[in-house]
Design a protein that fits this description.
Blueprint lengths: L14 H9 L29 E5 L2 H9 L2 H7 L2 H11 L4 H9 L2 H15 L2 E5 L3 H25 L5 H15 L9 E6 L3 H19 L9 E6 L2 E9 L21 H9 L1 E9 L2 E7 L3 H4 L23 E8 L1 H8 L2 H17 L4 H21 L6 E8 L2 E8 L24 E6 L6 H20 L5 H32 L4 E7 L3 E2 L13 E2 L2 E7 L3 H25 L12 E4 L5 E4 L15 E4 L3 E5 L2 H8 L19 E5 L1 H21 L8 H4 L3 H15 L2 E11 L2 E10 L4
Antiparallel strand pairs: 1-2, 1-8, 2-3, 3-7, 4-5, 5-6, 6-7, 8-9, 9-10, 10-22, 11-12, 11-20, 12-15, 13-14, 15-19, 16-17, 17-18, 18-19, 20-21, 21-22
Helix pairs in contact: 1-2, 3-21, 7-8, 7-12, 7-13, 13-14, 16-17, 19-21
Length: 730
């Protein structure tokens, strides 16, 4: 249902935003009117247009203050266990006392004040355009080593696994030696007082120079230099400092002299580490040189690229994060083409080892290449991605703009399946994909081709008895496989052509005793009710398809037992069925009563003319089959707007459900004398007092009310909008 998406655009609560969600309950001023991108106060203004990725956390100090000033935080820190922790930390000899002594030293105070300032405004990380090549090489190397580990014995018998993996690593690096270099990465912290940062840099330089005197190999490698308008302390390293021939796994290679060019390339590698101050930022840079530092603020900027245009509308908001990944980088991160090529390369390598005639090898090679090409055409086409979030009056809001081509994702129509999730479940993840009419015929064609090769080359190699059993089984089973093909292609797939599906978790089914061995609860306890809902285009064909599958399975069991008497006699019976309230049929196998479960727990498959459901109870299936309007509070999700995907999480509802079971568990422990077994320290806080504190923690957790996200198309771009609803305690 969900296609691959860029790494920056998932369920996204990072850094301080996550702390705010868990502890906050914040109230912010309404959003400011939109401004131009030049008004955005972020390091993104200085980055070059060819930056591979950028991720920034903003307004960190403001969010910390909002957390510390919230009623939720005040209630949490007033709990006895929190007070005890603070008392212990601040007691004699504790961390607090030690910290106070350390903080009295002026230089230490200056350092801590600088660190707090660094994390209070903006923290960012960015990577240069070499990251695409670096990650591509990393992916190809991993695939080569993985394949060598699993299949290498077939091609190189006699070599140890370590030797094979080492050779795979060397072959890949040697083939891609032109891509061998340290990728540029830049980490930055915005500061209020650059002079204070420079003072600490001077202090660090003195300490490091003293340490370098003890390491002759680092002599003259630490220097102070001006780069790109900044003042930096730079350490330069190179590959000559590493004895590559003796370092694992290179020391496993036979005849290392054959790889002199690779070892020379490794020795020529440069690594430059720089720490310094530029403008209002403390910067840590790693790369082959400082060239990327010199590019800051020069030429075309990243923020001037078309991918940042959507941010202009929200430039006046209280931005808390900005993220970006380039098309080239996402192609390396999300494309499986290189991995597929590695498998193809291995398949062809094994083919040359097989005892086959040249014309047979040529035929198989041709088929493998055609299969690889066919698979690649179905893969998503990666594009650039932009992600950002900001503070709102109700919590957080964010957007991801994805320029990738997702070939199967369908956002052309409303998600009508949202009318069949029970109105207000705890969790719903819904979406629609396009149905590819050629997918099943292609699968069948390749399956038949593979089976043909097995019969041509594999069956003749079987022992006589196994060969006879196989041929006897296939003679009777082939018609059953044909029926399976027809049931899938003519019944199942057309019945699910709607393309919609939803995963639902609810919590409305409650009982005072879910199992006979459980102590009864004074109040009914809800359980998590997972279910899968799929859109139905033809309910009659869907039921016929599964009827066919049961007949085919039973037929295969009969034929298998004919060739192997050790297989027990078994036939899958038809399920029981009955009509549900409000329409629809349910099919199920009763759970034996001696299992002791509540009788309402009945795993079932139910179907109406609109949807089919897999759930754990008839009650839940009835709720899902019945069309019910959504009643989510503060959610983006609705069933009337064209959407590709929709997600809603009722976090407060989940916490309430879990809290009910915690109360039940605590009562059960008390009933069996748990209070008599607690330690002396814990006994000072009776169980009821501990439970009160636990209730308060659950109450604080519920300040995050909900999370919702929807994905839709806007002028050919996939947009995911998300909202976190947060409410402070009253």
């Amino acid at each position: 249902m969900s296609a691959s998406r860029p790494w920056i655009g998932r369920f996204r609560l990072t850094g301080l935003a996550a702390l705010t969600v868990l502890m906050g309950g914040l109230v912010f001023q309404p959003a400011a009117p939109a401004q131009s991108l030049s008004k955005i106060d972020s390091a993104v203004q200085e980055l070059p247009a060819d930056t591979a990725f950028f991720a920034s956390m903003l307004r960190n100090g403001e969010q910390f203050k909002a957390i510390a000033g919230s009623k939720a935080w005040a209630k949490l820190t007033s709990l006895p266990f929190a007070q005890e922790m603070l008392k212990g930390a601040n007691g004699e000899g504790g961390f607090g006392e030690q910290f106070q002594q350390w903080y009295k030293v002026p230089e230490n105070k200056q350092l801590l004040d600088l660190v707090l300032d660094m994390v209070s405004q903006e923290i960012f990380v960015s990577g240069g355009n070499s990251w695409g090549d670096f990650l591509g090489l990393l992916t190809e190397t991993y695939a080569a080593i993985n394949l060598e580990s699993s299949l290498g014995e077939l091609a190189n018998p006699g070599q140890s696994q370590q030797e094979r993996m080492a050779h795979a690593l060397v072959r890949t690096l040697q083939k891609n030696s032109d891509r061998l270099q340290a990728p540029e990465i830049l980490i930055g912290f915005k500061v209020s007082d650059p002079a204070a940062a420079k003072a600490q840099l001077n202090r660090l330089e003195t300490v490091l120079q003293q340490q370098i005197k003890q390491a002759p190999m680092l002599k003259d490698r630490l220097k102070r230099e001006a780069v790109g308008g900044g003042d930096f302390l730079t350490l330069t390293l190179d590959g000559k400092m590493v004895p590559w021939e003796t370092v694992p796994p290179f020391n496993e290679i036979e005849k290392p002299e054959q790889h002199k060019a690779l070892f020379q390339k490794l020795k020529d590698l440069q690594l430059t580490i720089s720490l310094g101050v530029r403008g209002k930022y403390v910067l840590l840079s790693v790369g082959p040189s400082n060239a990327h530092l010199a590019k800051l603020g020069q030429g075309k900027k990243l923020i001037d690229t078309p991918e940042f245009k959507p941010l202009e509308k929200y430039a006046g908001e209280k931005l808390t994060s900005i993220g970006y990944s380039s098309k080239a980088l996402n192609a390396r991160l999300t494309s499986n083409s290189s991995t597929l090529d590695s498998y193809m390369e291995w398949g062809l390598k094994l083919l040359t080892k097989a005892e086959l005639k040249p014309d047979q090898q040529a035929k198989i090679r041709k088929d493998l290449e055609a299969l690889s090409k066919e698979i690649k055409t179905a893969l998503p086409v990666p594009g650039a991605a932009l992600d950002f979030s900001f503070l709102t009056a109700q919590g957080y809001e964010g957007y991801t703009y994805d320029w990738s081509e997702h070939k199967l994702r369908d956002g052309s129509k409303p998600l009508s399946i949202l009318n069949h999730v029970g109105g207000n479940p705890l969790i719903v993840i819904a979406g629609r994909n396009k149905t590819d009419p050629n997918a099943w015929p292609q699968f069948v064609r390749w399956a038949k081709l593979g089976h043909g090769y097995f019969e041509e080359f594999g069956v003749p190699q079987l022992p006589a008895e196994s060969k006879q059993q196989y041929q006897q089984f296939m003679k009777e089973a082939k018609p059953l496989f044909t029926r399976f093909d027809e049931a899938t292609g003519k019944l199942l797939i057309p019945s699910l052509a709607d393309g919609q599906a939803a995963f639902v978790i609810d919590g409305k089914l409650a009982s005072k005793q879910w199992h006979n061995n459980f102590p009864p609860s004074p109040v009914a306890l809800p359980i998590l009710e997972p279910a899968l809902v799929v859109g139905v285009s033809d309910a009659d064909k869907l039921q016929k398809a599964f009827g066919e599958y049961r007949t085919i399975l039973n037929g295969l069991l009969v034929e298998l037992r004919k060739v192997n008497q050790d297989i027990p006699e078994f036939q899958l019976p038809g399920p029981q069925s009955r009509k549900l309230k409000g329409g629809g049929m349910t099919f199920f196998y009763p759970i034996p009563e001696d299992l002791g479960l509540d009788k309402r727990l009945v795993p079932n498959a139910s179907v109406s003319d609109k949807v089919a459901v897999l759930s754990l109870s008839h009650e839940h299936s009835e709720r899902l089959l019945t069309a019910t309007p959504l009643t989510f509070d503060g959610s983006l999700v609705d069933a009337k707007t064209p959407l590709a995907t929709a997600v809603h999480v009722d976090w407060a509802g989940l916490v309430t459900l879990v809290g009910a079971w915690v109360e039940y568990g605590a009562g059960t422990f008390r009933a069996v004398g748990f209070e008599q077994q607690v330690s002396t320290a814990a006994a000072q806080n009776p169980a009821e007092d501990v439970l009160k504190q636990v209730r308060t923690v659950f109450e604080v957790l519920k300040v995050l009310r909900s999370y919702s996200a929807v994905t839709y198309q806007e002028k050919g771009v996939w947009v995911t909008r998300r909202v976190n609803v947060i409410r402070d305690l009253p």
